[in-house]
Amino acid sequence: MSKRILIVLHQEHSTPGRVGRLLQERGYALDIRRTPLGQPLPDTMDEHDGAVVFGGPMSANDEHPWVKDQIDWIGSVLRARKPYLGLCLGAQMLVRQLGGRVDAHPEGHAEIGYYALRPTDKGQGFSQEIGAPWPGRVYQWHREGFDMPGCCEPLAEGDIFPHQAFRCGERAFGLQFHPEVTYAMMCRWTVRAHERMAMPGARPRHEHLQGWHLNDPQVRTWLDAFLDHWLSPPAASTAPTCADRAAAADPARMAEPARRFAELV
């Protein structure tokens, strides 16, 4: 059977960047769906070996029907025990699926550029699992962050938005930062969305480009090791997943993430 990873993108010209290239090097075909353009997600994960949900300019709190449907759909990936990787918006949607909250910074700050990253105690152990240290600085492009659902393990933290990486069970991960970004992608983002660099806390464009040369080798090494771990077959287990535990605690809230968020705020 051929190996396939579902790739969820949120703009017409978005690409899976380095993550897509590394998956293809490992023999996986990429099934790309652009949900805001009306491309549907599969009803089951039977024909896919995992899913990566990327970022985008929209919010996980938006009222667009496709946003709500996609948050619901993430639950099907978790219940199927297939690998899930959420990057930026994809991580925030995972948080919403698990009952957590996504919000803007209380003082209006953004992270646009390179920022420091620190592993938690759990994150230090995860470094040993994958055989690579966390990068010291990572590329960010967001103005919202999230709280940590109680069933998740925080793996890395930052100064402006404290939660930067987490694990849900053994196979689902959320990263607030962008390890997939190539130099060409960075050049495009900083031109097409240059107004974001005027936000409080954002870095000027020249620091983005300089930061690439200083920080990217460590990010690339970490991502390579991370993907090997993420794709590796898990040990056989009948233990409930993070999603199972959250659903058992409150089935109605897990079934209706839009209503759940309205209650939280």
TrEMBL record:
> Which PANTHER family does this UniProt record tie to the protein?
GLUTAMINE AMIDOTRANSFERASE YLR126C-RELATED
Domain Glutamine amidotransferase intervals:
23-182
User: Gene symbol?
Assistant: guaA
**Name of the protein described by the UniProt record:** Glutamine amidotransferase
Q: Which PROSITE patterns does the entry mention?
A: GATASE_TYPE_1 (PS51273)
**How is this protein annotated for GO cellular component?**
cytosol
Coiled coil location: none
TM region(s), chain numbering: none
Annotated InterPro entries? ChyE-like (IPR044992), Class_I_gatase-like (IPR029062), GATASE (IPR017926)
Keyword terms: Glutamine amidotransferase
